[in-house]
Specification:
mainly alpha, 2 domains, 5 helices, DNA-binding, homodimer, 125 residues
Chain lengths: 125, 125
DNA sequence: TTGGCTGTATTATACGACTAGTACAGTTGC
DNA sequence: GCAACTGTACTAGTCGTATAATACAGCCAA
């Protein structure tokens, strides 16, 4: 059963997107595996203190991307393979890096400064 | 007059926040200086193809942070000094770095991999 | 078999972001 | 002075996110 212990809703990002990203990043990290059972919509929503419909929206999108399998009455399970994971990793990384480089460049930060900042703040907090 | 030529609304971030960040990052980069005139609400909204109220919301928040000065009838101007800029730089950098490190860590990326990714993708696009 | 769980669907409500339109007071340049 | 600009304020409406409550059909273990 996939654990959401490390999941903490934050920023202003829609909750359903945060759930989506949490699952995808777990799949990339290898902490979430093919066949793993997801918590039920009701259980997870109670756990996170949010509405079941919000969880359902996230799970529905995961199913639309063929990353989970659902059938009425039974728990949903992860549906992963190497190809999907490689693609997920590329997509997520590309967007993260694109976002940070654009942001830092707008502030006039150089590549060398950016690297130094990452090295310095990586292990904080 | 501050130019918004490089401003391109994107992601799902609220437009008024994107305008806010554009100004703040420009101040940090030194491309926007103390005393600089801002385009009028109406002109900027027409330029960006958005509603004047959205621009007003961003400008209002900048004034609440004492980063611009506005008076009825006259154009708004930037209100900066070294102390404010240092603080802006720290706040913006901290949030950017926090965001990217958290995201990459959730994907199981190490510090060394993160640095390599930044170095590799910095000059792309 | 049966009761409690599962996924799925529907309706209604609330709020923030954004748009549209209008109005009014004050500045600026000719 | 006056016309054209400026900032500010307000109402009304749409859309996406999130909540709340309810309902139904299918799985599964005791």
């Amino acid at each position: 059963m996939i654990s959401f212990d490390t999941f903490k809703p934050g920023d202003g990002t829609p909750i359903y997107l945060q759930i989506l990203l949490f699952i995808k990043r777990g799949a990339v990290a290898g902490t979430i595996l093919d066949g793993d059972e997801l918590p039920s919509r009701r259980v997870l929503s109670a756990l996170l203190g949010i509405n079941p419909n919000t969880v359902q929206k996230a799970f529905r999108m995961l199913e639309d991307e063929d990353l989970i399998e659902s059938q009425t009455g039974a728990k949903s399970t992860m549906k992963l393979n190497d190809e999907k994971i490689v693609k997920l990793r590329e997509d997520l990384l590309r967007e993260d890096i694109r976002s940070i480089t654009e942001s830092l460049r707008q502030m006039g930060i150089t590549r060398e400064e950016a690297v130094r900042l990452i090295e310095r703040f990586w292990d904080e907090e």
